[in-house]
């Protein structure tokens, strides 16, 4: 009989004792359970004992967490948390250095448990640890253990970081600033200061004033991954606690000291794999770097600012270099104003006054900064973009300014400019640490990509939003690959053409529908022969129905009609001339016949004799795609029957039908589309009963045959 649901079977162990296998009733008070366990080992005073999980962090069992005990759990009997705390705090006050070290070791092991931590804190344990840290009598293992235990206890949030004294914080700062210090102490001191900075603005200012940035740079350059990680953690904490102006000043100083280059070469490209914690801090640093762009992103253009008006004029002049602007040319002020307005429109501004386009926030002035950066650092690409598009038809023109404004918004969204940092994210882009002015450089690549995609899509002004959606996908997919440099990003994003994006979308849609799962692909392969037979049958029926074709004379006039069809028994092609406006003839009335057995081959396009003889004019090129011929035996000579299909679809249907008649494969685009449509429909019909049933990647294994077949029914035995 199965035990009740609130009873679990567990093992309880104790040093130098035989373990007990008991059935723990979760409804029974924990004190009663402890007394029963102690009685089994003949132990008195059960209140002095407690139960712990034997594995992991050896957490104490309490009424709150006892539901975590499952069947098969192993517990151990140990000293109660309050008595353990008394003993360890007594050990901390021992005159023996060895006793203090052992007490700290045990304290570090137990400090992560909330029950034990509350007992230590309630007995002024944090103050005693603080005394050990402030005295600093032993700068080696004892100090490291004291810092670790202090951090573990504070992490529970029972005591606020703001309660720490200024002398205590300054003492920890001194450990960070000290040159000759034990390697295990400084990472812990840096970690403690990081928590102080993030939790207390007042003490954070103290840390900022006491810990020079140069000192953190020294720690970052030490080839010790733990020390580097903690130094980066404190650096990002200080940057997060600073005002925007202070943050910009600090980052400018760090960049002058080549921090970006060091991170790129010695941390990101280090031989040692990047840890999760360092990846998070690099993400935070990247977010703070990009956050410096937020004020420009939130500031609209000021039409009364002389500097901003000059920047707009510079943008126009670099693109057009108009000679009609100078006063000496004799143009009136109205004429020059009209010329400027026209050139601003050629630049792609929606309004003759470009300031109105840049009043939108975001992107505000950040879009102007991007356009200016592109025009100054890639002037040939900028001029080519503008002049190439201004020479196109108006509807096919890719507007530079409008594209730049929208692209700046898009980049800010993809890179989350101005958004608060996540507490767990790790998705930084290495290329932002490999390049100065990385955001503007990224824009230069993206704006050229947009122009390339615009041409690939043959877009018009009405397609602007569609183009932006494709560019968003191109940029997002490439950023997700985390290219290590801007050049690698440029290569990868340019390889992701519009056609490739469409192919990826189709593949992902099929994956989502499950049509690319191995069992589904196998089913599709099995269905193909049957469906190809269906398509073959439809093509032959189309030939039997027949079709009117036009004859093309030597003067390229299509003024005569003729009709061709296949006999119902598929053995003869019948054809003959038809008067325009007359009804379709019956197969029996057609005067000419070609036995299918006499047909040698099917010719298409330029191989057809009636197209080959007509030269290479533009009109002939249009006919190449619709022309086909059949060669057949006419007595002892080879003759041709030449066709010009009315449409591309009719061309595919007739060439497929003739190929099917000759036993050749049907390889037209129309056959591929029809087959895909039929496969999709048939597959969905076959899988209707399996809706919402997961299909395994591989078939289940076939079990081995039984050792004997004695269980089989013997049909020869006659029942009485």
From TrEMBL:
**Keywords, in A-Z order:** Apoptosis, Phagocytosis, SH3-binding
Q: Which InterPro entries match?
A: ARM-like, ARM-type_fold, ELMO_ARM, ELMO_dom, ELMO_domain-containing, PH-like_dom_sf, PH_domain
Query: Which molecular-function annotation in GO is an example for this chain?
Result: SH3 domain binding
Q: Does the keyword Nuclease apply?
A: no
Transmembrane segments in this chain: where? none
Q: Where is the ELMO domain?
A: 307-479
Instruction: Offer one example of a GO biological process linked to this entry.
Output: apoptotic process
Keyword check for Aminoacyl-tRNA synthetase: no
Pfam families cross-referenced by the UniProt entry = ELMO_ARM (PF11841), ELMO_CED12 (PF04727), PH_12 (PF16457)
Q: Which PANTHER family match?
A: ENGULFMENT AND CELL MOTILITY, ENGULFMENT AND CELL MOTILITY PROTEIN 3
Protein purpose:
Involved in cytoskeletal rearrangements required for phagocytosis of apoptotic cells and cell motility. Acts in association with DOCK1 and CRK. Was initially proposed to be required in complex with DOCK1 to activate Rac Rho small GTPases. May enhance the guanine nucleotide exchange factor (GEF) activity of DOCK1.
Protein name, as recorded: Engulfment and cell motility 3
């Amino acid at each position: 009989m199965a035990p009740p649901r609130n009873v679990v079977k567990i093992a309880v162990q104790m040093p130098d004792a035989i373990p007990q296998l008991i059935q723990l009733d979760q409804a029974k008070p924990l004190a009663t359970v402890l007394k029963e366990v102690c009685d089994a080992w003949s132990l008195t005073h059960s209140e002095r004992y407690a139960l712990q999980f034997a594995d992991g962090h050896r957490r104490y069992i309490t009424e709150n967490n006892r539901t975590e005990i499952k069947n098969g759990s192993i517990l151990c009997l140990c000293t109660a948390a309050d008595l353990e705390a008394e003993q360890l705090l007594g050990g901390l006050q021992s005159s023996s250095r060895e006793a203090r070290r052992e007490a700290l070791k045990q304290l570090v092991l137990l400090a992560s448990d909330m029950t034990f931590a509350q007992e230590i804190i309630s007995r002024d344990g944090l103050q005693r640890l603080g005394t050990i840290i402030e005295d600093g009598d032993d700068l080696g293992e004892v100090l490291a253990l004291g810092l670790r235990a202090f951090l573990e206890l504070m992490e529970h949030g029972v005591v606020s970081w703001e309660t720490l004294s200024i002398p205590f914080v300054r003492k920890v700062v001194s450990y960070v600033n000290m040159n000759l210090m034990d390697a295990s102490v400084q990472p812990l001191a840096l970690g403690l200061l990081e928590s102080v900075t993030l939790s207390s603005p007042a003490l954070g200012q103290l840390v900022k004033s006491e810990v020079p940035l140069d000192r953190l740079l020294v720690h970052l350059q030490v080839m010790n991954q733990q020390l580097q990680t903690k130094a980066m953690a404190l650096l990002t904490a200080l940057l997060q606690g600073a005002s925007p102006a202070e943050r910009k000043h600090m980052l400018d100083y760090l960049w002058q000291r080549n921090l970006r280059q060091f991170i790129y070469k010695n941390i990101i490209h280090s031989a040692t794999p990047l840890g999760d914690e360092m990846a998070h801090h690099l993400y935070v640093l990247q977010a703070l770097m990009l956050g410096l762009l937020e004020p420009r992103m939130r500031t609209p253009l000021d039409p009364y600012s002389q500097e901003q008006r000059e920047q707009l004029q510079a943008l126009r002049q670099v693109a057009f270099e108009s000679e009609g602007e100078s006063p000496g040319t004799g143009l009136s002020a109205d004429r020059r104003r009209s010329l400027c307005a026209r050139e601003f429109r050629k630049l792609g501004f929606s309004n003759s006054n470009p300031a109105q386009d840049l009043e939108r926030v975001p992107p505000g002035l950040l879009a102007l900064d991007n356009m200016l950066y592109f025009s100054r650092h890639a002037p040939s690409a900028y001029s080519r973009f503008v002049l190439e598009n201004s020479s196109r038809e108006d509807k096919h023109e890719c507007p530079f300014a409008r594209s730049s404004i929208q692209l700046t918004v898009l980049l800010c969204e993809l890179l989350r400019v101005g958004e608060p940092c996540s507490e767990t994210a790790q998705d930084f882009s290495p290329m932002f640490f490999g390049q100065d002015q990385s955001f503007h450089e990224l824009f230069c690549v993206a704006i050229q990509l947009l122009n390339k995609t615009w041409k690939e899509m043959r877009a018009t002004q009405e397609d602007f939003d569609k183009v932006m959606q494709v560019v968003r996908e191109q940029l997002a997919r490439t950023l997700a690959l985390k290219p290590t440099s801007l050049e690698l990003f440029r290569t990868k994003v340019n390889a992701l053409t519009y056609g490739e994006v469409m192919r990826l979308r189709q593949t992902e849609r099929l994956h989502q529908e499950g049509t690319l799962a191995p069992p589904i692909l196998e089913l599709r392969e099995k269905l193909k022969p049957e469906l190809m037979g269906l398509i073959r049958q439809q093509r032959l029926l189309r030939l039997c129905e027949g079709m009117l074709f036009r004859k093309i004379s030597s003067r390229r006039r299509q003024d005569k009609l003729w009709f061709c069809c296949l006999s119902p028994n598929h053995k003869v092609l019948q054809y003959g001339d038809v008067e325009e406006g007359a009804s379709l003839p019956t197969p029996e009335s057609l005067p000419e016949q070609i036995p299918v057995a006499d047909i040698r081959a099917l010719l298409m396009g330029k191989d057809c004799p009636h197209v080959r003889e007509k030269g290479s004019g533009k009109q002939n090129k249009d006919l190449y795609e619709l022309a086909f011929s059949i060669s057949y035996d006419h007595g002892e000579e080879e003759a041709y029957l030449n066709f010009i299909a009315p449409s591309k679809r009719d061309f595919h249907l007739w060439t497929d039908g003739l190929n099917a008649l000759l036993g050749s494969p049907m390889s037209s685009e129309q056959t591929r589309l029809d087959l895909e449509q039929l496969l999709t429909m048939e597959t969905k019909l076959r899988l209707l009963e399996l809706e919402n049933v997961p299909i395994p990647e591989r078939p289940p294994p076939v079990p081995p045959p039984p050792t004997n077949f004695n269980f089989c029914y013997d049909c020869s035995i006659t029942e009485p």
